[in-house]
Automatic annotation (TrEMBL), chain A:
SUPFAM superfamilies (UniProt xref): SpoIIaa-like
PROSITE patterns linked: STAS
Key word Phosphoprotein present: yes
Keywords: Phosphoprotein
Pfam families linked to this entry: RsbRD_N, STAS
Protein name: Polyvinylalcohol dehydrogenase
InterPro entries attached to this UniProt entry: Bact_StressResp_Reg, RsbRD_N_dom, STAS_dom, STAS_dom_sf
Residues annotated as domain STAS: 160-271
Automatic annotation (TrEMBL), chain B:
InterPro entries found in the cross-reference section: HATPase_C_sf, HATPase_dom
Chain ranges of the Histidine kinase/HSP90-like ATPase domain: 40-139
Organism: Winogradskya consettensis
Protein name per UniProt: Anti-sigma regulatory factor
Domain of life of the organism encoding this protein: Bacteria
Length: 282, 139
């Protein structure tokens, strides 16, 4: 049941007339769900702003949340979802912040003497309007959370591919997890750049943390090795566990003349032997 | 989480993106652990699943994988059926030759996957699609 503009106006007047009461009981309602994670003063500020938003939208003749008159209100709801999502509130807690307005307004109507059928019919229209506002908040919340997840996935890509200096002239890339094309590209770029920056003649690619080496992963690693060689650096692949070795043999992947070792320690020892660095025996 | 109780327990995954290849791999690994395959066999079936799932995506244009627990009366095992409705494989012998590829890969995926499993069945028709069934038994 859509809200007519007369009904909207009546509710705008009601919100204005009982401003303090509505804000107070609305704030009470929300503070019960957020349980002390937001101060009462903060909530009161938010609800009074939202109350003005609803009031303006309704007196402007908005019968639906998508109307032009409700543009300001939509912006406010988006802002609310945004802060709630980033502060770690659940979708439920966020939507309740809007739904609570219905309860607050109902209290006002019940307290008045004119709680007749007409008022209740008005209330149903108003209630539908608030429902749509709450659902809008919910949608916005989900969208913002998805953006957050996408951002984090991007950050994870950066985080999970460090290139570390292991020894003078030796850098290592510990690969962890799934090596898809996007990550392989990041790994290659990082490694080649580090080789230039540090002037290292040796690079160790450690695949201990890669759960399965299929042809795609192998191809990415081989390409990285070839690229490093073109720049004059020698690559060693380490972290080849027994099950990975057997799988690579069965698949028929050839690593050619690339040095491979079972552990990172073996690989480092191999490089140090090549460079003639003497170990300090204790 | 899926429980793999009955012999008929099967789970179907649609393969439409790279993420789905990862999901197939994880599902296969979970089941491989559940049927108590050895670590080497787990890695082999997971790798074979990874190859075939990617083939389904890249050459079959997407499809689905059905992962199920099987039992031949003496020992349990794991079976994965990959199905797509892509262009099919015109020359199967050539496709199963090591090093032959029509894409940019190493040409070892299909032939390598066959060596990684105990049973390998392929059913393909040009213009209709390809279905590949692989099984790995517990030893």
């Amino acid at each position: 049941m859509a809200l007519s503009s007369e009904q909207g106006n009546r509710f705008a007047d009601l919100l204005k007339g009982h401003e303090d009461t509505v804000i107070a009981s609305w704030t009470d309602e929300i503070s019960r769900t957020v349980r002390g994670r937001l101060s009462r003063a903060e909530l009161q500020r938010q609800t009074s702003e939202l109350q003005k938003g609803f009031q303006t939208a309704l007196s402007g003749g908005a019968s639906d949340l998508n109307d032009d008159a409700a543009a300001e209100l939509r912006a406010q709801l988006t802002e609310l979802s945004n802060t709630r999502a980033r502060q770690g509130f659940t979708a439920n807690e966020t939507a309740v912040s809007v739904f609570a307005l219905k309860e607050a307004v109902f209290q006002v109507i019940k307290g008045g003497e004119d709680a007749d059928t007409a008022t209740l019919r008005d209330y149903i229209g108003f209630s539908a309007f608030v429902d749509r506002a709450a659902l809008f908040t919910f949608d916005t919340y989900v969208r913002i959370r998805e953006e957050l997840i996408a951002d984090q996935a991007e950050q994870l890509l950066e985080l999970s591919t460090p290139v570390v200096k292991l020894w003078e002239g030796v850098v290592a890339v510990p690969l962890v997890g799934t090596l898809d094309s996007a990550r392989a590209q990041v790994v290659m770029e990082r490694l080649l750049q580090t080789l230039v920056d540090t002037g290292s003649p040796y690079a160790i690619i450690d695949i201990t943390g890669v759960p399965a080496v299929d042809t795609q992963v192998a191809q990415h690693i081989l390409k990285t090795v070839v690229a490093a060689r073109l720049m004059g650096a020698d690559c060693i692949i380490s972290g080849i566990r027994p099950q990975i070795a057997q799988t690579i043999v069965a698949l028929g992947i050839e690593f050619g003349d690339i040095a491979t070792k079972a552990s990172l320690a073996d690989a480092l020892r191999h490089v140090l032997r090549l460079t003639g660095t003497k170990r300090q025996e204790r | 989480m899926t429980t793999w109780d009955g012999a008929a327990a099967a789970e179907r995954v649609a393969i439409t993106s790279d993420q789905d290849v990862v999901r197939v791999r994880q599902l296969v690994r979970t089941l491989a652990v559940a049927v108590k395959l050895s670590l080497v066999d787990q890695t082999k079936i997971v790798t074979a699943a990874s190859e075939l799932a990617r083939n389904t995506l890249v050459y079959g244009g997407g499809g689905n994988a059905e992962v199920s627990r099987v039992d031949n009366g003496r020992k349990p095992g794991i079976r994965i059926v990959f199905a797509d409705e892509g262009p099919g494989i015109p020359d199967l012998d050539l496709a199963l030759t090591d090093g032959y590829t029509t894409g940019g890969g190493m040409g070892l995926g299909l032939s390598g996957a066959r060596r990684l499993v105990d049973e390998f069945e392929i059913d393909t028709e040009v213009g209709k699609g390809t279905t590949i069934s692989v099984t790995k038994w517990c030893r």
